[in-house]
Amino acid sequence: MTAANIAALHAVDGDGRPEPVAFEVSEYRSVLHWPVDGDTRGGAYLELGGDIGGLRMRAGLGAEVQWWLRLRMLAGPVLATPGKRTEWTFLTQPMTDEQRRRALPPASNRSPPGSCSPPRTPTAP
Asked: Could you identify which of 74, 87, 95, 118 might form a hypothetical disulfide with 69, taking C-beta atoms 3.0 to 4.6 angstroms apart as the criterion?
């Protein structure tokens, strides 16, 4: 199933508010082809990091991101996790080995523009 098919399930409505969409563990596996495990209470758990990646953020920011993604026809599946602070998890493709390894700026007294530099230690007067 493609991201467009999953987005068509309307797990998040047009106003950016999550709607409850419930699947059985077997449906997650057979329909969505997700690596999902279940527990004895009927909970379903998706393990991120192998076949599926995820980016988690607070619900307010998630709604804004989803709105912009929809404008560009890039919206995909989003999981809303209710709790004290509702969080959204945007499901993504797994990272390639090239994406996992990032080069850091060279160690020097001067950092290139746009890079992070270590905090400076104050000198005695």
From this structure: 74
